C-alpha cells in the first residue's frame, strides 16, 4: 500500500497490465469504521465454478478471512466480526458441517501464535457449547491465549443467530421480571442490548457501522439484526474466497461516501 497527500489518507495500489498503478481509492483515516462485520458468502459457488468440493471453497474462504483479519489490523479497525456459522447452518450435510469445524481447528492451530504476535484478541459470538469437542477445545485455547491482547478484536460468530440472541436476552429479562427485580415498564433497549452476544454481559462491542456481504446476495440472513439497525450495508459481487484486501478497501470507501443521519436531519 502506498501513501499520498495527507498522512490521514490511505491510497491503494493496484497492478494493471503488469505495472503497478495507483487507482483512485482513497480511504480517509479519520473516518474509518470502528467495527466492521462481514457475511462471508459464496464459498460453495466458488467451489462449484471450479468443479471442486464445497469444503475446498470453505478452505479458500478461510485463507481470504485470514488476509482480511491482517488487513483490518493494518487499517486500524478496532473490531472485525465474521459470520462463520449460523444457527441455521446445522441443516447442511454432516460432511460440510464437520468440515467447517475442522477448518476452525486448522485456523486456530496454525495461526494462534501469529494472532498473539499481532496482538489480536479473539472472541466468539454464539453458543459454542454444542460444537465438536476438538473444535471447542481449540477455540478455548485461542480465547484464553489472546484474552490479554489489546489490538484488533476479531469476533467469530459461531452457532450464531440474531433472532436467537434476542430471544435469549429477553428470556433473561423475563426471569428478572418474574423474580420481581425489574418492572416491565422499566425494560430499556440498553438492557436488551446488554444481553446479546455483542453486549456488555458478553463480548462488549459497539454496533457495527458497516456490514459487508459478498457474493451478490443482498440480505442479512439473521446476522446482527438488533445491532445493525443503523449500519451501512455494502454488497460486493465478489465470491468470498476472491475477496481481497483491495475489495475490502472498496467496501470501506463506499461506506465513507455515505451520508449517515441515524433517522435525524443534518
Ligand atoms: C457461506 O458460503 C460460508 C459459510 C457458511 C461458512 C464460512 C466459513 C469460512 C469462511 C471458513 C472457515 C472459517 C472459520 C472461522 C473456520 P456458502 O457455503 O453459503 O456459499 P454458497 O452460497 O455459494 O453456497
- Sheet with most strands: 6 strands, parallel
- What molecules are bound to this protein? farnesyl diphosphate
Span from first to last CA?
35 Å
Low-confidence stretches are 1-9, 11-22
Order the strands across the largest sheet as they lie in space: 6-7-5-4-8-9
Order of helices and strands: EEEEHHEHEHEHHEEH
What share of the residues lie within helices? 25-40%
The percent range for strand residues is 15-25%
Q: How many runs of DSSP E, i.e. beta strands?
A: 9
Mean pLDDT metric: 90
Task: Calculate Rg over CA atoms.
Answer: 19 Å
| Number of helical stretches of at least 4 residues | 7
How would you sum up this structure, described in words?
The chain has 266 residues and is of the alpha/beta class. The protein is 39% helix and 20% strand. It contains 7 helices and 9 strands, in the order E-E-E-E-H-H-E-H-E-H-E-H-H-E-E-H. The protein has helices spanning 43-50, 54-75, 94-117, 133-146, 162-178, 189-194, 245-256; strands spanning 2-3, 9-16, 19-28, 35-39, 79-86, 121-125, 153-160, 210-213, 232-235. The strands form 2 sheets. The protein has a 6-stranded parallel sheet, with helices on both faces. Strand 1 (2-3) and strand 2 form a beta hairpin. Helix 3 (94-117) packs parallel to helix 4 (133-146). The chain is globular and about 60 Å long. The protein starts with a strand and ends in a 10-residue tail after the last helix. Farnesyl diphosphate binds next to helix 1, helix 2 and helix 3.
Amino acid at each position: 500500500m502506498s501513501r499520498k497527500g495527507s498522512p490521514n489518507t490511505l491510497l491503494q495500489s493496484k497492478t494493471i497490465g503488469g505495472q503497478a498503478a495507483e487507482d483512485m481509492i482513497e480511504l480517509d483515516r479519520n473516518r474509518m469504521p470502528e467495527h466492521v462485520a462481514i457475511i462471508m458468502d459464496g464459498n460453495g459457488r466458488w467451489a462449484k465454478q471450479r468443479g471442486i468440493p464445497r469444503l475446498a471453497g470453505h478452505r479458500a474462504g478461510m485463507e481470504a478471512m485470514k488476509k482480511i483479519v491482517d488487513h483490518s489490523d493494518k487499517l486500524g479497525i478496532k473490531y472485525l466480526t465474521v459470520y462463520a456459522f449460523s444457527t441455521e447452518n446445522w441443516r447442511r450435510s454432516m460432511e460440510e458441517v464437520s468440515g467447517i469445524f475442522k477448518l476452525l481447528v486448522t485456523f486456530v492451530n496454525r495461526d494462534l501464535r501469529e494472532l498473539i504476535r499481532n496482538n489480536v484478541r479473539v472472541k466468539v459470538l454464539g453458543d459454542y457449547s454444542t460444537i465438536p469437542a476438538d473444535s471447542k477445545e481449540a477455540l478455548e485455547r485461542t480465547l484464553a491465549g489472546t484474552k490479554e491482547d489489546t489490538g484488533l478484536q476479531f469476533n467469530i460468530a459461531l452457532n450464531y443467530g440474531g433472532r436467537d440472541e434476542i430471544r435469549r436476552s429477553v428470556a433473561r429479562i423475563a426471569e428478572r421480571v418474574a423474580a420481581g427485580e425489574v418492572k416491565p415498564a422499566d425494560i430499556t433497549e440498553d438492557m436488551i442490548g446488554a444481553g446479546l452476544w455483542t453486549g456488555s454481559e458478553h463480548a462488549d462491542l459497539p454496533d457495527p457501522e458497516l456490514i459487508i456481504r459478498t457474493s451478490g446476495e443482498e440480505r442479512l440472513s439473521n446476522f446482527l439484526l438488533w445491532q445493525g439497525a443503523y449500519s451501512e450495508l455494502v454488497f460486493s459481487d465478489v465470491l468470498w474466497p476472491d475477496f481481497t484486501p483491495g475489495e475490502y478497501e472498496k467496501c470501506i470507501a463506499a461506506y465513507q461516501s455515505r451520508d449517515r443521519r441515524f433517522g435525524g436531519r443534518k
